[in-house]
Amino acid sequence: MHVIFLSENGNETFRKPGEKPNIQGEMTTLLQVRPPVEAAPRTSSDIVVVGGESLVGRKIGSYTILGELGQGGMGCVYLAEHSLIGRKAAIKVLNPDIASDPEVVSRFFTEARAVNDIRHPNIVEVTDFGQFGSLHCIVMEFLEGETLAARLGRIRTFDERSVVHIMKQCTSALGAAHEQGLVHRDIKPENIFLRAHTDYPDFVKVLDFGIAKLLGAQASVGHHTKTGSVLGTPSYMSPEQCLGEAALDTRSDVYSLGVVIYQMLTGLLPFTGDTLGRLIVCHVNEAPVPPSVVNATVSRPMNDLVLRAMQKDPNHRYQSARDMREALERVLGPYSRIETPMFGVDARGAIAPAMAHPRPAGQTRASRMAPTANLGPARRATQGAEPSGRPTPVTCIDTRGVMGPGPSHPGAAGDVASRLTDIVLDRISGGQVDLPDLPGPTIRCIDLAAHGRLSFSDAANIINESPGLRSRVMKLANSAAFPSLMPATTLGLAIGRLGTQGLYNALIEFAARETLEGRQARVKEAMRRVWPHALGTATVAAELCQVQGQSSQGANGYLAGLMAHIGRPVVGALLLEIEQQMQRAGSRSPIPDAAFLAIVEASAPMAGAAVARRWELSGAVAEAIGNAGSWNARDPKSLSNAVRFAGLVTGRLGLTVGLYNGAEAERSFAEGRALLKVDEVALKRITHGFKERMTVLAGIRG
Length: 702
Fold this sequence. Notes:
45% of the residues lie in helices and 10% in strands. The protein is α+β, with helices and mostly antiparallel strands.
């Protein structure tokens, strides 16, 4: 059994009975994140519940509590799920035993107010806070990955490129906080979270503003920090913080960042002591051993940066987090610099899957689309074949993406379908199809975001130009998808609530729905109920990525699932155009319905991949759409398999679109389940309350 000890700042630390005190380890900050995968889960016998019974299984507002993530002196952090939309969240619940103290409650909500005002992508997002019944709660985004402390425990030291990559994000986040007059006061590796994502690795989230100080505005938050009180983690505190100075300013966070960088470079803390008093004396009076002495590979510029950040006199440090960020930029040579991930840009300068690719000057979206890139399996089967002799039979795909060699169409109808399929595929691969484009405001927002220049005010100005788009953004921000106690009354507040990633997803969803539903009557009929189906496929694909241990692919899975059928209305419109041309040439018969649907199904994957490229989604999304027509046995956990299986699950649960071949769907479902190794527990987790959730979500995301 572990015993919980409380630090001076109200956070918890765990110590086994009889274990020697560890000053560095006993100031661990309460995290609202999932523990590292390799960490052994704590059982009920390992946890001392503070302040009452566990809330697991109960509901708080619209959220159902799934489990505990951590405990501290002020309360407990729970993993929760929104009952309607299935969105995961972390909820901090204040200990009821101390909730009667107004000062404690005020300090508890300081973090929520502060973070809500900052709204920075590198700061953990607070989506709601307030009192729910007798419980005082803060609702935050649920993060997956690991803390910098956990990473240090595994690898001990970082190379300078990684240090610059992580610390540029930290200084960017703190710079935004400082501009709001907020000093964090507890910067340490436990409060720097590294999100797991293959396309923008180690995307930083700064955590726990619970002991933050609002400069010159303490009265506004309802409590006062007593002069002489020491709040923070001693190993990382600035000299003035160790002395309990009341006039603590933003340069204290600069010092703490310097200590963190020192530890990242050397694997050691600059100061250690057997007692808290000794450690404080070191921070106040003693000079640290230069990091380059401890680790000879540390460069002179990096060494100087750390020593300047850790100056005893605040006037001799970097005077702001922004100044420190600029110094980090200068550490690496001009050809070795790495860009801070902002708005989906990864550390190598590549665009993350959720963001658009920046275009060279003068290049249009259409000119960037490689006509023959990422061809789906239907088209690749025709490469090298003579026009008059297509070696592969017409492929039949059901409306949920089920593909398999179907029977050739007999007689004239089969010949027409085969020839027209070749024509459609040739036109798509040759770039001769009128593909849908994104609306102008959407393009402008995405292009600015891709270059790291999109602010909430810029987005509001652009979206304001389109009343319809403005109305949809406002409706979404005030829906259950972004629950809050207060409505977003202006477009700026609405966009701030969605965040950059949420705004991007919303803009793509708006455009996808309009395209999916089609314009021509015959296409509309074939695409009935497509929007709930698309949202269901997107949701299942994202959840399946998590179940398969590939949570970093969740964003790609969602977009690929959302647009899995985006090629169908494109092919349908093209077929109607070809039909008109045939009739003008003397043919009196329209394309038979069976042939029409067969051509749409066979050609849709390639058309969908073409649309994804035109909209400048990531290559992974376009490839998954193009290849989702058949199983990839060589890579069972491929994104295309996840999207294909998600479509099968969605249709199997009753959200079908167009024709539905139940026997073929069940056969393919069983095949996919065996390939992806989806057990009964995982399937129940994905499908629980699915149809009801999708019905609600379809209304919200419309």
